[in-house]
Amino acid sequence: MQLAFRGLERFVALVTYALHASLVVAMAIMLACIALQVVMRYVFGNAPSWTEELALLMFSWCIMGGIALGVREGFHVRLDILLTALPPFLSRWIETGIGAATAVFGAYLTWSGLRFVDVTSGSVSAAIGYPIEFLHALAPVAGALICLFAVWRLIEGPKADPAPELTP
What contacts 24+ positions apart, CB below 8 Å, involve 129-136? Predict the structure, then answer.
């Protein structure tokens, strides 16, 4: 059992690293496209049409991948005033329920996203002409990552928060 846990832990770490790297690359490409579009429009008076479409594709991945990364790292904004007021055992049960609901949401996003990709297959983007499935496939990919990371957080259990430092 310990071997399976370590294997899953390494797999999740590898997926997390790949997600981090892909988000950095997507952000760089998006910013480069926007900068090129601004320079071409205001300096030369003729912006290429593909820059906006590629920036939109990269922005979409940054948003969808960022949502999944937020589930993995636990950095989404949340209000926990009620959870801190509850007894610890009840708070743990609610946290587990929230994690399970997040995993279900990720599975639903994967399922509905795959259906949407199927319905819109065969279309191409307007400027570049890439298959529109590339854009629409971001939802099921992000959903699968959300589900994976939420399940991993449930398996991993709660992390102990470091004790707050007291300053004089």
Answer: 134/57, 135/56, 135/57, 135/60
